[in-house]
Specification:
Radius of gyration: 20 Å
Number of helices: 11
Strand content: under 5%
């Protein structure tokens, strides 16, 4: 195993791997370093299997409610708060601007946002704030990738 000092790029890569749900052992194997070396350099606490699962799903773009549905277990939001408190940089799902939402609705052939929201099960209360806050991207995942 290597005894060379860590570069900033290696350290950033290791943190990114851990934040994506990989284990210390995996990062050590990929980097050619010992697990102890990785633990000392990164200095982030180990995560449970459930926490790593939640991070991995967040990293690929799932929202907390989708994670609960996919895994069949509740509590993704609570685990995300704990993971943040441990010092991990937790990825957050993106938001679409009102113009993007309207463009998707037009592309799907809807006359207005109300009809679009009804078709895709988006609460009317959520749609009333689209002009000021946009819309979480996960709410439109189905609409964006469904066949027109």
């Amino acid at each position: 195993m290597s005894r060379l000092p860590w570069t900033d790029e290696e350290r950033a890569w290791a943190v990114e791997c851990l934040t994506a749900g990989d284990t210390y052992e995996e990062v050590a194997a990929w980097s050619g370093r010992t697990v102890v070396d990785v633990e000392r350099t990164i200095a982030l606490p180990r995560l449970s299997d459930r926490q790593r699962e939640v991070l991995a799903l967040l990293a690929v773009g799932y929202a907390p409610c989708e994670i609960d549905d996919l895994t069949g277990r509740d509590g993704a939001r609570h685990r995300i708060r704990i993971i943040r408190a441990l010092g991990y940089a937790v990825p957050t799902p993106g938001r679409l601007s009102s113009d993007e939402v309207k463009a998707i609705a037009r592309a799907k052939g809807f006359e207005n946002l109300k009809a679009f929201a009804t078709a895709y099960g988006i609460p009317a209360s959520t749609m009333t704030h689209v002009n000021s806050r946009g819309l979480p991207a996960w709410r439109l995942r189905e609409a964006r990738y469904a066949q027109a």
